[in-house]
Amino acid sequence: LIRLSPRPSPVSVQQLHHDLGLEPQDLSTQLPTGEMVEFNYLGNLVFQYTIYFSTTLEMVKTFSAIINRIIEAAQERGETALYLIIDASRQQSTSRPARAYLQQQMAKWAKLGAFTGLSVVNPNWFVEQASRLASRLQPDLKLSVHLNQQEALAQIRQQQRQSADLSEFLQWWQEAQETM
User: Fold this and answer.
1) Among 60, 73, 74, 128, whose Cα sits 20 to 30 Å from the Cα of 66?
2) pLDDT of residue 67
3) Which DSSP state fits 147?
4) Distance between the two ends of the chain, CA-based, in angstroms?
5) What b/e sequence results for 57-68 when a residue is b if at least 16 CB atoms lie within 10 Å of its CB, and e otherwise?
6) Is the pTM of this model over 0.85?
């Protein structure tokens, strides 16, 4: 059973600090309207974000600032396999300026290639379009759509295991070639 917790546990706080040198407060910002833009760290370079109701330009700018913080911390540590789960189950609308700003940011993130996978949960039309744009901008991005966050996390964990198995095999193969 995979459980997603809305509040960081002491273990996830410690793991976030160890993995990227970040603290939970680096992953959240309260807007002047009282709305929160908050990511959860699920360990092993997997982040989760839930979209609520209407998405404004201010929310997207804050979302982007947090993503940039995560990418910068990952680059400083030499990490290149970030995963993001976006739960759009509760999203109702996105303003036009927010859509335009997000598209610009997605192009920048794709050039960096920091994200290995993007999983979306119950995407609406806009989130589906944004996901497709992400996969066109970064063809090697592993994109998946799920009915719930548990399925999304299970798929990511499977991808991470397969990636680790492949890198171990490639390392063994390179060593074995020298002896053949």
Assistant:
1) 128
2) 96
3) S
4) 44
5) bbbbbbbbebbe
6) no
